[in-house]
Amino acid sequence: MRLAVRDIDILDLPPDFEPTADYQGALVLIRVAGRPCGQAVIAFDTDGGKTPIKDRILSAASSSVFEAWLRHRLALPDPSPAPSQLPKASVVICTRDRTEDLERCLTGLMAMPDKVDILVVDNAPSNEATRDLVGRFDTVRYLREPRPGLDVARNTALRNADADVVAFIDDDAVPDPLWLRTLLRNFEDPLVLAVTGLTMAAELETDAQIAFQHFGGFCRGFRRQVYDAHNLDPFTGWHAGAGVNMALRRTIVDAVGWFDEALDAGTLSLAGGDTDMFRRVLEAGYRIVYDPEALNWHRHRRSSKELQQQMYGYEVASLAILTKALLFERNPRALPRMVRSYIRLLRRLFQPRRTHQFSLPYNDALTQVRGAASGPVRYLRARARVVGAGHKRG
Amino acid sequence: MVDISVIIPTHNRAAMLRSLLGKLDAQRDGTPAFEVLVVADGCEDDTSTMLSSLRTRVPLRTLSLPGVGPALARNAGSQVASGRLLIFLDDDIEPGENFVRAHVVEHQRHPGGVVMGPYPPLPHIAKDRFRLSARAWWTRHFERVSRPGHQFAFTDVLTGNLSLEAELFHAMGGLDPQFARAREDFEFGLRLIKKGVPIRFAPDALGYHLEHQTATLTGKMVRRHQEGRSDALMARKHPDIQRLLEIHRFAGKKGRKKRLQRAMATRAGSVLDPLVKAGPRLLQMLEKAGLRRLYEKVERQLNGYHYLRGAAEVLGEDWRLPTDPTASTDEIDVLEINLDQGLEAAEAMLAERRPLAARIANGTVPVGDMCHQIGAEPWDARHLRPWLNRQAIHGYLPVALAEWQGQPINVPPQLSDFTLNTLNNPSFHAHMIEQHVQWMQAKLRSALYDNTSRS
What we know:
The complex is a heterodimer of chains A (about 400) and B (about 450). Chain A is of the alpha/beta class. Chain A has twelve helices and twelve strands. In chain A, strands 4, 5, 6, 7, 8, 9, 10, 11 and 12 form a nine-stranded mixed β-sheet that branches. A three-stranded mixed β-sheet of chain A has the order 1-2-3, with helices on one face. The relative contact order of chain A is 0.12. The mean pLDDT of chain A is about 90. With about 450 residues, chain B is α/β, with parallel strands linked by helices. Helices cover about 45% and strands about 15% of the residues of chain B. Chain B is built from 18 helices and twelve strands. Chain B has a seven-stranded mixed β-sheet, sandwiched between helices. Chain B has a three-stranded mixed β-sheet with strand order 10-11-12. Chain B has a two-stranded antiparallel sheet with strand order 5-9. In chain B, a hairpin with a 2-residue loop joins strand 11 and strand 12. In chain B, helix 10 (about 255-265) packs across helix 13 (about 290-315), helix 12 runs antiparallel to helix 13 (about 290-315) and helix 15 packs across helix 16. Chain B is globular. The N and C termini of chain B lie far apart (about 85 Å). The mean pLDDT of chain B is about 90. Chains A and B meet through strand 3, helix 1, helix 2 and helix 7 of A and helix 5, helix 15, helix 16, helix 17 and helix 18 of B.
């Protein structure tokens, strides 16, 4: 199945909305007066085009669309107005051998109205292609980090950026023009150490991409949230966002430390560096803002095999973080959480949920159980390697 | 002769006071002339030597009192202050460089009211539960109060960072000395609201609260005792707001649990007090063991105990609270407003009549009630749109949508039950469920969604 991805403004609908031949439907990002505020999932051609498109979008739209629309109609002030002065920022892309995606990302960054410092961290590359590509963009800085690991690259970026705020975007994502500016407007509150944004699917060409988006993708809702340890358990820090779309205050390093180099892509732990950072921010009593208007577009993994690997990785990471908290931070609350997550997964394995109307080409519950089972060991081994190499830990 | 006086009651916080005075001395250029009046209330540390050795550009005066509590200290300060405008500032707040000017500007813009400034906690690493919840209370309080269209209630008034004209303060009779150590601000706020004095919030009048240096778990327990005491006094002085006070839950005759709690608070003090003294230590142990639920339970019990002990000090054996014969809601006039004249007309009507309660309709469709809140300011024009957006969204959204789509009024457009139920629900889980429902409702034809092949 293929779905089109559309980006529309509800106050100004395009006349040519209806589909081209091979798309069965569309995932629609809905804006009100330019601001992203919700989504709709629409199947094409179910009623021979009798119902006007506006009605169909409205009846499929999420509740946040109506709230934003009403706010606009009542001419209410913006709930998070831009401060008079935005902080200085650097944009960082950590990449490894993905020049095609990286080029799209850099082109998107160049199209933003704000001119900023852009830094590409080339993480343990196998060839010179990335360096050559970055050389073509004369305002982009290039840095090579030979030690593999996404968190190693992130730390290198934090060490080499001198702006007050460092915004991270994945190499397979493209920013919306106002992405950076919107992220930055949330840093006025001095308690805010991290700001995350909304990430939508850039394409839904395969079942794997659709499945990932249906499971939630990187979308954390369409309402602005301010998280602290009082309304979000630090262990569920991933509710606040993901590394694909986040900005950190440089002082985060002094307040909660560096990224844990035994976590995330490129290590045995496979993922979780961002989640671990968010957890530590919340535990230290600081805040994370999720601002859905800070939008970027991510190309999800296309093949089922990659999706399965991703689900496996998330489960490994989740248990890796709990292992870290329990053994190395002596946090007693990690133990019951660990037990609970094993029970939850095993239960899912033996009693598939009724509402789970998916048919993935593999057993997703089993994939997750395998990930959870290997998580603690994988983390311990990754950590041993990091300590052996004398790297920084978070 | 200066026009503005900053009054700072203080008690044994010489170092903090010194840095505070330094910040006041370094206000931004263009700040009107002001004097600082420190009321040293029962200070036994080196506050007085520090003050006498301090050199400031701003005129600084000191008043010494024998330890009478912040309410009386503020009153005494207001008596000797020479300014026409009084700014009350707590001694654990570090004012920003625009602090004095922001207060003055707000008074120039709207004379005759009370202006409050924010004093959120100073950012720092805070890991323990007590610190986190104290910080959450302070930050959320100021966020709520600063929201446009917020309806001020007496519980929003805090005297830590507050300014008003001296004339108004004296006309109000100052702060009530009965509430010397707690709730003096709420009580003052209640009298302000009853008198119809407008309350405003000036976000620029910012100071950082050093609550992490002054608030402790043990201190909180002492404060709960004082709050219990003051609430009991408040229920006697203002029977009309009695229902809004915590103490209301414990008063009255019925309920075995209530009676037991009261008996323990009144009589069992000599037995329980030594046990309760170990409370903060116990809480720390529970926190270390990661037993968060138990921690919260024990903390609630301890707080309740101290609160009731304080109340018992005032009420003794007799826990009947006086009731107010005039506090009947039937008497209140409800203003009927119809939106078919447009929002501006409705706003003008609210601004002119300033009702305690209003009933909003659109044509024949009821939109909602702006209810009377005891102890809150009357409704005004600036409340209407935010109220429609949050409180009356279920009633108003269909009306507005029908109008937008050019359909005749009174025809609510099609909003699914799910959408209606999740309006204004910001939770992550609500979003996840909504998203799942969206995908399922789209009825995509694909093997991915073929639920016959798998149960």
